[in-house]
Write a structure and sequence with these properties.
single chain, 311 residues, Arc Repressor Mutant, subunit A, Jelly Rolls
Length: 311
């Protein structure tokens, strides 16, 4: 298990991938070949990492923004969201200006051992559907959950203090991977809500709808029209609207509102930003509009919520 605060040389890295890391990052003579588990917590200025065939990986930013590209599509990654790539899937990572990454590349053996631990009957039965496609997730943005954020921040704090107990870290990474698999598994449940048709057709519809979800997560602070979202997904407006509600259980407007409220909650709890800046940060014009919306969705006004959340 490796923690790095710099990106390895790209030429060197690609050679090691071709060699399956034989006698490289794996310092133990008994280590199996293939990707080791690597945590990249890097503060970087403008940077580009192209055409890397990685393991099952999570891309996350503590600060700043980056862009991740797979299969000829690019997503803008900002704090509060994560992006997943599959094992042996080539990706590009671009940091346009500056960012602090917290990317986790799950080692092949580490991942396989965790998946194997979920194959025993009568234990973690909710994971059986995950096992059917253990290395396959949809390449899209996912919102961080509070448990995932707590785990990432705990690791970030420990490794910044220059002390990370290997056993503690392995347990935390195990917990992170279990959360990721559970979250991504919901995608397969969402697909089943679509009308009866070929599995490949359902998956294509979900993939196209996910393009709109990516746009919402990347630009929830901007004005997005139904036309914008439908065009992004290559559907007509009302075909898009119908399918979106079937798959995600919310209309696009409800979905955007939910994302905005969740981000407002995070900022109220974890920052000292004044209310008007939080309102602007989620795309609302004034404090009054934000306060009314926040009360409608949570039953509390922003300031009392902040006070209660910090107790």
């Amino acid at each position: 298990m490796i923690i790095r605060h710099d990106f390895p040389n790209i030429i060197w890295l690609k050679k090691q991938i071709d060699r399956r890391f034989n006698s490289t990052l794996n310092t133990s003579s008994t280590a199996s070949m293939g990707w080791p588990t690597v945590l990249l917590n890097v503060k970087s200025q403008a940077n580009y990492r192209g055409d890397i065939k990685g393991p099952f990986s999570l891309f996350y930013n503590i600060q700043g923004q980056s862009k991740v590209s797979v299969d000829n599509r690019t997503v803008a990654l900002r704090p509060g969201f994560f992006f997943l790539t599959n094992a042996s899937q080539a990706y590009d990572l671009e940091i346009p200006t500056s960012a602090e990454t917290f990317n986790i590349h799950f080692g092949e053996q580490f991942l396989e051992e965790i998946l194997e631990s979920h194959r025993f009957p009568n234990e973690l039965e909710q994971d059986w559907r995950i096992k059917a496609r253990p290395y396959h997730v949809y390449n899209r943005l996912y919102p961080q959950s509070p448990p995932l954020q707590k785990l990432i921040l705990a690791i970030h704090q420990r490794e910044r203090e220059d002390f990370v107990d290997p056993l503690w870290l392995e347990e935390k990474l195990y917990a992170i991977l279990c959360i990721i698999l559970t979250i991504s598994h919901k995608d397969f449940t969402s697909i089943e809500r679509l009308p009866a048709m070929k599995t490949s057709s359902r998956e294509e519809i979900f993939r196209r709808l996910s393009l709109a979800v990516d746009l919402i997560y990347a630009q929830f602070d901007q004005s997005l029209s139904l036309e914008d979202l439908a065009q992004c997904s290559f559907f007509s407006k009302f075909h898009f609207l119908r399918l979106f509600k079937v798959v995600f259980g919310y209309s696009p407007h409800q979905f955007i509102t939910q994302v905005r409220i969740q981000k407002a909650k995070e900022w109220l709890q974890h920052t000292d930003w004044p209310i008007h800046l939080i309102a602007n940060g989620i795309g609302l014009e004034n404090t009054s509009s934000f306060s009314r919306l926040f009360y409608q969705k949570t039953g509390m006004y922003p300031t009392p919520f902040r006070m209660m959340a910090r107790k």
